[in-house]
Specification:
Layout: H1 2-22, H2 29-50, H3 57-74
Helix pairs in contact: 1-2
């Protein structure tokens, strides 16, 4: 997950840097760092949202324990 975030942010950063260079804009360190930070946050948020959250985690926890007990009792 971290690898995908860093690669995506790096590609996004390089793409916009090339765009700025082609337009003849000056490269300012603050702008570069801000763009890199925004890219990292956007891709991290995108990856975080894609992972589904189990809202019934506390309910499923007890069910798993009950299933394991039943299996042990059958054996």
């Amino acid at each position: 997950m971290l690898k995908k975030i860093l690669i995506g942010a790096f590609i996004f950063f390089i793409g916009f840097t090339i765009k700025n260079v082609r337009n003849g804009e000056k490269m300012i360190l603050e702008d570069i760092l801000l763009l890199a930070g925004v890219a990292l946050v956007v891709f991290a948020f995108k990856e975080w949202v894609e992972v589904p959250y189990d809202w019934d985690k506390h309910k499923n926890k007890n069910k798993d324990k009950d299933k394991n007990k039943e299996k042990k009792n059958l054996n």
